[in-house]
Amino acid sequence: MTKTYTVELTDTEDKALSSVCNQAEWITNAATARASAAIDSVVAVNMAKCNEDGIAIATGVEAQVAQAFERGYVTDGS
Q1: Which has the least CB within 10 A, 18, 42, 46, 74?
Q2: What distances in angstroms separate CA 64 from CA 24, 50, 59, one per listed residue?
Q3: What is the pTM assigned to this prediction?
Q4: What is the DSSP letter of 73?
C-alpha cells in the first residue's frame, strides 16, 4: 500500500525551489529519507522493548514496525 500526500507551496516558494532542484524529486527524497530514519528508530525501539518484555520479535521490518505500534511501544504522534 502507498500513500499520496499533497504539499502546497506559494508561487514564490515554488519558483525559488525550482532554481535549486526538481521540486517533486526533492519532496519525495526528503519524505522517503525521513521515513527510512523513522523505520530504523521504530525497529530499534521494538527490539529493545521486546527483549525487555521477553517476547518474540516479529520477523521482517514491516512486521516489526506493526508490532511496535500494536504493542504501544511507539505512537503515531497525533
Answers
A1: 18
A2: 30, 10, 7
A3: 0.86
A4: S
